[in-house]
């Protein structure tokens, strides 16, 4: 077996540079990482492959001049198609024939590992926060029933209409708090699922928001090839509705909100790999979300509005999780953009 065939078996991207830092050879993993074929990469200046990079050119020259290996645990590379990569990079000079004066680069992509670790950490924190809130909600719910029952009994004993107004106020506030507690507890049953075109759900939610906000500009950018999804339509509609309503409020009901759908292939969600995944992106041109809220955005009772309950996104996330999906804020978008990932799965028996 030739050296090239052996290198192509490696998961790590391997690039061999000549003394002018031009590409002499790459393995299959490097072709995938750099999004180009070996024939096109050959003889290209290595640094010319990137629109921008955190890699210092003198760092590579130093490796050749001093004949010493150098490494960087976090190098950011941005390809000309704007795709950003974070890699762990090792450069070492070659001293064996016929590669004297050449350099071997090993690159291992780590941004996906970092993203999975971050998702797992955030998921644990979120579950802990939800468990705490639900525990408090249960503690509040029990005495609320007794409070409302006592007010109801007291009303029967009162004949003064003005005094009975006070007991009605107590019952009304108890009902309001009970409703808030029920929302805090979130959906506790997995909704019934069926095959449905996701655009049908999006259109229904969009029409409802458009009726409530006649000055809002709603832009649709749908992928017509999107296959049907095995989902609970009412649950996904509630998710989209919550995000659209937030977007409308963020733009004072007079801005632009864009709803976009796409299909992603070989997508990893919370450590599980899916062949296909539908993505619903909802963005607005509002002022954006304050940085201090981004890490806890999906926690219950977290809101950036004075009159907000902080439950809309928390409920949306619970519903998406029931579909083995994921909802996230796009960190690379100029404006506020939420991404809803719904994996394609087999229908449940």
TrEMBL record:
It comes from the Bacteria. InterPro entries: HATPase_C_sf, HATPase_dom, His_kinase_dom, HisK_dim/P_dom, HisK_dim/P_sf, PAS-like_dom_sf, Sig_transdc_His_kin-like_C. Its EC number is 2.7.13.3. It is an enzyme of class 2 (transferase). SUPFAM superfamilies: ATPase domain of HSP90 chaperone/DNA topoisomerase II/histidine kinase, Homodimeric domain of signal transducing histidine kinase, PYP-like sensor domain (PAS domain). Keywords: ATP-binding, Kinase, Nucleotide-binding, Phosphoprotein, Transferase, Two-component regulatory system. SMART domains: HATPase_c, HisKA. One of its GO terms (molecular function) is ATP binding. It catalyses: ATP + protein L-histidine = ADP + protein N-phospho-L-histidine. Residues 135-346 form the Histidine kinase domain. CDD domains: HisKA. NCBIfam families: PRK11073.1. This is histidine kinase.
